[in-house]
Write a structure and sequence with these properties.
13 helices; three-stranded antiparallel sheet; five-stranded mixed sheet; elongated
Length: about 300
């Protein structure tokens, strides 16, 4: 499984501190969080990419601890040691479900406004190489990695929403996406019954002389190869040579091999799984909105050049 989202960590970290009762070291917090959240040893090795490497799991545990401490729910009696506060115990009792960062931020702001916030960001131990790396990293790398993390989390949220759609709405989404990608000016839904295995049609030109036929499978299990063969037969019925098969799940290895074999002939079948679907939706603005934009300025050397 993938590393859980940042918001998933706050309650677990706070609950672990509560269950422990005594002071908890940073390494103990890593170990217990991985155990309780069922994060495998392999997943614990995952790191953000780029020229610098930061362990993703440890980064999110550290971030959760810092945020909980700034909100007054965790304390750090000694360097690298964490302990739940009475406010933290009360918060666990009074709040059920996921604890979100915005809730903790509001609590931290309230503490600051009351003048009671004497906490500072969690100080790392000397062996905390992550913080040393972050001090030296290029800010542009930080921006790129932050953007990628936000995109990964958005992709997960999109797939969850896509899988909750009705089959009819999912077929509409597939047609909308292809049009946004530039495949035609108009998307048509295939007949809801007697569709011959076709869920949608994209006209690639104004007159509809060139068409792309769509198949949309809102499945939880991998799509097997017989479904690809059936789709190929449906294309033959319409005399079509181009098909796009999109699923909210994945394709089996045999299914991908079947599509590759068919595409060596006079037809071409493109497969898009759930992961790629979410990425394409983000890239082409389908089902997403722009929440904020950062404009990064650079020096205009021409302005200062001698004329």
């Amino acid at each position: 499984m993938a590393i859980p989202k940042q918001d998933d960590f706050y309650r677990f970290v706070l609950q672990i501190a509560s269950d422990n009762g005594e002071q908890l070291s940073r390494q103990e917090l890593f170990t217990e969080t991985a155990r309780v959240m069922a994060v495998s040893h392999e997943d614990r090795q995952e790191a953000y990419g780029g020229e610098w490497r930061v362990n993703k799991f440890e980064h999110r545990v550290d971030s959760a601890a810092r945020t909980l401490r700034s909100a007054g729910l965790l304390d750090m009696p000694h360097r690298g040691q964490f302990q739940i506060t009475q406010d933290g115990r009360n918060y666990l009792q009074d709040h059920v479900g996921c604890i979100r960062r915005r809730q903790l931020t509001e609590l931290a702001n309230r503490l600051r406004s009351q003048g009671d916030d004497d906490s500072s960001p969690v100080e790392p131990q000397k062996e905390d190489v992550r913080e040393e790396i972050l001090d030296e990293v290029d800010p542009q790398d930080l921006i790129r990695e932050g953007y990628r993390q936000l995109s990964d989390e958005l992709a997960e949220e999109l797939l969850t929403s896509v899988r909750d759609m009705t089959p009819s709405r999912f077929e509409d989404l597939v047609a909308d996406l292809l049009v946004k990608m530039g495949y035609g000016q108009q998307g048509e839904r295939g007949p809801r019954s007697r569709d011959g295995g076709i869920d949608g049609v994209i006209n690639q030109d104004a007159l509809g002389l060139e068409k792309v036929y769509l198949q949309a499978k809102q499945w939880a299990n991998p799509v097997p190869s017989p479904e690809i063969t059936k789709f190929s037969g449906s294309l033959d019925q319409f005399g079509a040579t181009k098909g796009v098969f999109i699923t909210s799940s994945t394709f089996s290895r045999d299914a991908r091999e079947a599509a590759n074999n068919i595409s060596r002939g006079n037809k071409f079948i493109r497969l898009i799984d759930g992961s790629e679907l979410a990425r394409l939706m983000i890239a082409h603005g389908v089902g997403v909105i722009t929440e904020f934009t950062y404009e990064v300025k650079g020096l205009d050397e021409n302005y200062f050049a001698d004329i």
